[in-house]
């Protein structure tokens, strides 16, 4: 089992998702080679790392990310909902995450948007990545094809990838049309024929989100180049060790 381990929103089974605590914990594990995270824009245009469009679930605040200024976002507690140990964790700016991860781990940055909710999101994220010359250390992914098209137009040198939890017959055609070199797909849609089709076209595939060790091993057996995205990097490591012991 040699499949790359992607920490979903950081080491999010233990630390609060999409916080520096979760990213630091993931980076402390030598077997974590990628981190997946979500980016939106504050009201005043700062790229911030958070999954939901509102603050309600993962912070002590309320309201929409896009209607809140960065100065107010910085005051929110994004850790105590997970456990008292993480009280005071903040919603990080993308800039802070990039500075911490540069040269240590690669990043799957999801452009978290729907329709024209964040017309300036791709440009803002690209600016932060280019400032640090990290174009080869990231991929941009999204459920929203328009965001991917805009990102590819503005930064053709950065790999982009469609996120999907289905397997339509025209999937490869969609990826080609968008210029994607990456596919982020719900793990139940993965089989040998998908991997063969994507690899033949030079497209890297990541399966999400897998926390069960038995399923991890089953997916790993399909193809060693399939990336495995998990909330539980520790489970990935246990599955790896078990596989090694069986050899």
Supply database-style keywords.
eight-stranded parallel beta barrel, single chain, 9 helices, globular, alpha/beta, TIM Barrel, 247 residues
Q: Topology of this structure?
A:
Blueprint: E1 5-8, H1 20-27, E2 32-41, E3 47-49, H2 70-73, H3 94-101, E4 106-111, H4 121-131, E5 138-142, H5 145-154, E6 159-164, H6 171-178, E7 182-186, H7 192-200, E8 204-208, H8 213-222, E9 227-230, H9 233-246
Parallel strand pairs: 1-2, 1-9, 2-4, 4-5, 5-6, 6-7, 7-8, 8-9
Antiparallel strand pairs: 2-3
Return the average pLDDT rounded to an integer: 96
The helix tally amounts to: 9
**CATH level 1 class label:** Alpha Beta
Radius of gyration: 18 Å
Classify the secondary structure makeup into a structural class.
alpha/beta
Main β-sheet, spatial strand arrangement: 1-2-4-5-6-7-8-9
Binned strand content: 15-25%
Largest sheet: 8 strands, parallel, barrel
CATH topology: TIM Barrel
Count of individual beta strands: 9
Low-confidence stretches: none
What is the molecular shape? globular
Helix content: 25-40%
**How many domains?**
1
- The named CATH superfamily: Phosphatidylinositol (PI) phosphodiesterase
SSE string, helix = H, strand = E? Answer: EHEEHHEHEHEHEHEHEH
Rounded to the nearest angstrom, the distance between the terminal CA atoms is: 10 Å
Architecture, according to CATH? Alpha-Beta Barrel
How would you characterize the overall build of this protein?
Strand 5 (138-142), helix 5 (145-154) and strand 6 form a beta-alpha-beta unit. With 247 residues, the protein is α/β, with parallel strands linked by helices. It has nine helices and nine strands. The chain has an eight-stranded parallel β-barrel, surrounded by six helices. It has one domain: TIM Barrel. 33% of the residues lie in helices and 19% in strands. It is globular, with a radius of gyration of 18 Å. Helix 4 (121-131) packs across helix 5 (145-154). InterPro entries: GP_PDE_dom, PLC-like_Pdiesterase_TIM-brl. It holds the Pfam family GDPD. GO terms for molecular function: phosphoric diester hydrolase activity. Residues 3-240 form the GP-PDE domain.
């Amino acid at each position: 089992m040699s499949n790359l381990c992607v920490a979903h929103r950081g080491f999010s089974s233990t630390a609060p998702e999409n916080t520096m605590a979760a990213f630091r914990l993931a980076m402390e594990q030598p077997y974590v080679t990628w981190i997946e995270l979500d980016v939106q824009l504050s009201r005043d245009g700062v790229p911030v790392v958070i999954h939901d469009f509102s603050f309600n679930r993962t912070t002590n605040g309320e309201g929409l990310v896009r209607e809140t200024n960065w100065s107010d976002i910085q005051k929110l507690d994004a850790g105590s909902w997970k456990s008292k140990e993480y009280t005071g964790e903040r919603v990080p700016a993308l800039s802070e995450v990039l500075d911490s991860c540069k040269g240590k781990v690669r990043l799957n940055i999801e452009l978290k948007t729907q329709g024209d909710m964040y017309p300036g999101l791709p440009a803002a994220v690209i600016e932060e990545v280019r400032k640090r010359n990290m174009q080869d250390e990231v991929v941009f992914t999204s459920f929203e094809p328009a965001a991917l098209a805009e990102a590819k137009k503005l930064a053709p040198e950065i790999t982009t990838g469609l996120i999907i939890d289905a397997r339509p017959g025209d999937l490869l055609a969609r990826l080609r049309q968008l210029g994607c070199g990456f596919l982020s797909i719900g793990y139940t849609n993965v089989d040998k024929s998908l991997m063969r089709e994507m690899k033949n076209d030079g497209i890297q595939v990541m399966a999400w989100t897998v926390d069960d060790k038995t399923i991890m091993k089953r997916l790993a057996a399909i193809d060693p180049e399939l990336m495995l995205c998990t909330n539980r990097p520790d489970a990935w490591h246990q599955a790896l060790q078990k596989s090694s012991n069986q050899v």
